[in-house]
Amino acid sequence: MFELLDQIFVLLKHSLVGLFPLWMQPVVSVLISVVVIICLFPALFALTTVLERKGLARIQNRIGPNRTGPFGILQPIADGIKSLTKEDIVPSSADGAVHFLAPIVLVVAVFMGFAVLPMGRNMTLVQMDAGLLFFFAIGASTELSVFMAGWSSRNKYSLLGAMRAVAQMISYEVPLLMSSVAVVMITGSLSLGKIVEAQNHYSWGLPHWYIFTPWGLAGFVMYAIAATAETNRSPFDLPEGESELVAGYHTEYSGFKFALFFLGEYLAMFSISGLGTTLFLGGWSAPLEILNWVPSWIWFFSKLMLSICVFIWLRGTLPRLRQDQLMNFAWKFVLPYTLLILMVTALWRFLGPGWQQWVYCSAILIFAYIAMARLGMRREHFGPRKYGYAE
Amino acid sequence: MLGEGILKGLAETAKNFAGSFFSAERLTTVEYPEDRIAPIEAARVFPILIYDGLDWEAGLRCVACQICEKECPPKCIFIEKSKDKKPDALGKPQFYPAEFDIDISVCMSCQICVEVCPFEAIKMDTVYELSTEDRFQGLLLDRRQLARPNRYFQQIHPTEAGVVDARLAADKVKSDAKAKAAADATAAKAAAGGATQAAPKPGEPKSGEGN
Questions:
Q1: Alpha-carbon distance A331 to A311, whole Å?
Q2: N or C: fewer beta carbons within 10 Å in chain B?
Q3: Residue B34 covered by a domain
């Protein structure tokens, strides 16, 4: 019974594919999965926009949207209709083709990331041996589309936003990769399916997720920071800092193209949360051995939504960083610390199981955290500025 | 330590999030069209013209002195003085506004017209739901639309209306006494000199100064 529930989507797909002649089956199989992903994640996006607006409202002691439908849950439909019926304005001096392509490239690139995410037992669209590599390669092309949007708009705010976005995404791409490499070092595989399998075993009923190891916890925190910056979420939302840059790189977009950017941003958040779940939170595996009967896809999506809630919580809490703070944080703290995590992970691996690896690795990581925070993030006091020639 | 402040902030927002579901003090939102907060006495929106008695046209306190028209910073008031005179509340013949228009799309609710009016004729209303489908004629109010009885003013601004009414009553008493004295004098003169007719000379009735 529980087996059936766990595999229900896989079995459904198999029976659907069986209706087609043999030569069509591979294409149909892929097509079905793609359609499901293309429908599922935008639906999740619609849900998340309401969740975000309601959550932020509650954090600010407001009620939030509550007019469209019961408790405002039909708000995304209203928003969608509004976006679709709005006039699509393209600036006369904009580069039309690039301006048109930018949102499409973004959404396509982001959707491709979902291809390798294991969303449940046997529920991966493409079983790729180098899934992690593919994910990051595709993920890096979102920078391209952001810059396409900013450049083609021929608007200084768009361009400034795009420049900020590219600078920020490239700076945080490095720690994002580094913290994932730690997982690869332990698992010995770039396949996301294998990474989940490696975490999917239990001792005393507790899971062996990587977040429950010292290097995994540190890596997860660094991954979360880098992922927030990578998806341009608050507090790293400088590229679209509405108080400074109108709306950043999508200033000149309206109507459905703007909606695509909006969608792309949230989809990027989903995919990066999904990857974080896969790498550190055990993917689709249950948090306790006795909960193993719950279908695996439920675990994956609840972990995903949990990380989305954390994103929303962070957005409701933190103010936006300044550009120099952003860069300082990336290069003086996050990057060195992720490099250290790599070292510690190697140490963990070679110390082998036992109490030593826990004690040594934790000690090194905690000490390094305090020391690097003191050194890298200390405030520099320059004192009053002297104007040598002005006096 | 790095990140300590972030944790504190997260705790604070979590407290807000949870608290807004349980404590009514935190959730201060008033859902406007259904719920409304009680009207505030000192609120002011757009000017209205006050009239005494029941007939709005006869009772308008305005004497078309045009001070408010001249003082209005955005120049939203238009007054046309009457050619003839008619007696005001004190019985003194006065001009009256043949036309008195206020364009509330221009009015900035500064209350300067109320401050300068020596006749307590123009006051601020508290009605704020004035949306209309015609943004030109619908927002240009004439004297009929602006006229409000004094009891309406007493209703919306009880404190201010009390002060104003007391002053007007005092003025009335004073002018009545003066008129009576003048009438007595005339009567005495008539009795003495046998003059057939003499208009009572009311002198200069002291009206309430506009604050």
A1: 22
A2: N
A3: no
